[in-house]
Amino acid sequence: MRAKGVLSVDTDVLVPFFDVDSMDVVWHGHYVKYLEIARCALLDDIGHDYTQMKAAGYVWPVIDLQLRYVRAARFGQRLTVRAELVEWHNRLKVHYLIRDTETGERLTRASTVQVAVTTAGELQLLSPRVFTDVVEQRLARLAATHHLLAPSASADDPSPMTVCP
After folding, report:
1. Is CATH 3.40.830.10 what the domain over 7-149 is classified as, yes or no?
2. How far apart are CA 159 and CA 148, in angstroms?
3. pTM for this predicted structure
């Protein structure tokens, strides 16, 4: 069973002609590009993108990539790529789901794992605080927003609503 992410972002991708093979389906290697587009959008949403990571003295190489193809994407197809942050304290783990935008049909699911490495090449066993602090701040803002949007429970309400990020 896949872990549920604490933050997620949906990104739209229109399959371009140069991503398909002679059979009009997306070449399997291009799915990695779609994951990267979604992961960049997720990092933007968190507030700590690759440029900021490098400026803080860290690079984050992908050390594990898993893809499960269910159905081929085709030229001109609109895709929705969801990236969900699953882990961030010891490593950056993101789960992905690629769906047909129009039908919602699942085409691919994937996950990536990245680790922090200093620009001098030293592997970090924990994610740097500069990153984890930004994630925690984003989660706190999300929780505050959900709290503000949740209807307040009244004395007449036998089941008050609890909102979790």
Report:
1. no
2. 18
3. 0.85
